Amino acid sequence: MDRMLWVFGYGSLIWHPDFPVAERHVARLRDWHRSFCMRSIHHRGTVDDPGLVLALDRASGAHCDGVAFRVAPGFEEETLARLRERELISSAYLEEWLGVTLSDGREVVALAYVIDPAHDQYCGGLPLEEQAAIIASAKGGRGPNRDYLYSTAEHLGELGIADADLDWLSARVRLLSA
């Protein structure tokens, strides 16, 4: 690649990018929102008992605050291959190049994985209480679904990124799991 590679993280990439990072900034993506709108049949659930994972769901006028990572020079191709292996395990995510605004005001184009609303793993619009019940009980290849929720909410909080739905879900899932 002959240009800088930026990757936008809004879920587990925030706390587990798993690629060499040259630069990271809190960033805003407009007209998308973070949502537990994808049934997880691999990492946080199974085919018989799907969990839920976060995805970017298109929503005009909304925004998602996350982290933009600039991949260390020389690791662009390796990073793309690793991200595709990790994120495109099913065809529910689509790879998109989207403009994001970094906390320092710069605008960059970043790779982001967004939900395909036509895919059968898409489940946008589930009530929060239903999401909490699913997340509290599901387990997959990377562990309990609730651990994914807790880690994401915790890291967003450390970055000063408010997400009322994730905060509510974290509190509710803790009650359901007690």
From TrEMBL:
Q: Does the keyword Transferase apply?
A: yes
**UniProtKB keywords:** Lyase, Transferase
Q: Which GO terms describe its cellular component?
A: cytoplasm
Which EC number(s) does UniProt give? 4.3.2.7
GO molecular-function term, one example from the UniProt record: glutathione specific gamma-glutamylcyclotransferase activity
For this protein, the record's InterPro entries field holds:
ChaC, GGCT-like, GGCT-like_sf
At the top level, the lineage of the source is Bacteria
**Which GO annotations describe the biological process of this protein?**
glutathione catabolic process
Q: Which CDD domains match?
A: GGCT_like (cd06661)
Keyword Lyase part of the UniProt annotation: yes
**Pfam families recorded:** ChaC
* Name used for this protein in its record: glutathione-specific gamma-glutamylcyclotransferase
Q: Lineage, please?
A: Bacteria, Pseudomonadati, Pseudomonadota, Alphaproteobacteria, Rhodobacterales
